[in-house]
Design brief:
alpha/beta; Hypothetical Protein Tm841, Chain: A,domain 3; 2 domains; 4-stranded parallel β-sheet; 3-stranded antiparallel β-sheet; 10 strands; globular
């Protein structure tokens, strides 16, 4: 008897890549097989790699002293993350709020490759983190890049962010504000609330209140108005302002 067959190889694992705008700790990224590209933290004439060379507490302290701002990942780090041959899905921090998406897209274009998909999360922090974890779960379930992108896009149809800034100068340095929102920097005795613009690429005025509780209340009212319920995930990113975070949580 002579027989033959072609054994089926295990499918190539999909590589999930993201930037530190998602706030996933380095060890958690390793645990879930996520490739983490650090944003750059500029301090004077020096650049530090977010999470790897500078921690959140030090970064926040430098911002208070008007000494630091964040910027896109180094091109070399993006290229290194993309140099492997397996299918790759990169979930980038929102275009417009960061140059991370544009930088990654430019690298892919220069490499003339077709196995890398760059996805504009249109968000950052908590929702971006959720999308990354969702992508890893779907990857482990053998879903395709298209299926994962479709699921993430579905989530983003019911996603919004509200920001209650303490340091307007940091946002102005990063070019994240619309002109009207930037003009609000003179009202710091008030408690302004910003939200993403319609194209989700800038921050614009939502409302102004006299107290933290008033600002938080206006956001909660908007959430109720828009039907936010127990089926939604709510993230509170606090930049170490724990009192305000607790007030929002309560």
């Amino acid at each position: 008897m002579i027989q033959w067959l072609r054994p089926q190889e295990d499918p190539q694992p999909m590589k999930i890549v993201t930037d530190t705008g998602c706030l996933i700790p380095v060890e958690e990224a390793k645990k879930h097989q996520i490739t983490l590209i650090p944003l750059q933290i500029a301090v004077g004439e020096k650049n530090f790699r977010d999470y790897l060379e500078i921690g959140s507490e030090d970064f926040v302290e430098l911002i208070k002293n008007k000494a630091a701002y964040s910027s896109q990942p180094a091109v070399g780090e993006v290229m290194e993350a993309f140099e492997s041959l397996e299918e790759t899905l990169h979930i980038a921090m929102a275009k417009g709020l960061s140059a991370a998406y544009d930088a990654a897209s430019s690298v892919v274009k220069s490499m003339e490759t077709h196995h890398i998909t760059v996805f504009n999360s249109t968000t950052l922090a908590g929702p971006q983190q959720y999308l990354v974890y969702l992508a890893t779960k779907l990857r482990d379930g053998q879903k395709s890049v298209k299926e994962i992108v479709d699921r993430m896009s579905g989530c983003l149809r019911e996603c919004d962010s509200f920001l209650m800034p303490v340091d307007f100068d940091f946002l102005k340095r990063g070019g994240r504000l619309t002109p009207m929102a930037a003009a609000m920097s003179g009202f710091l005795k008030m408690k302004p609330v910003l939200t993403q613009s319609q194209n989700r690429e800038r921050l614009e005025k939502f409302t102004v209140a006299r107290t933290w509780s008033g600002s938080i209340g206006s956001v909660i009212d908007e959430m109720v108005k828009r039907g936010v319920s127990a089926k939604h995930k709510i993230y509170i990113s606090h930049a170490l302002n724990m009192d305000a975070a607790k007030q929002a949580f309560d």
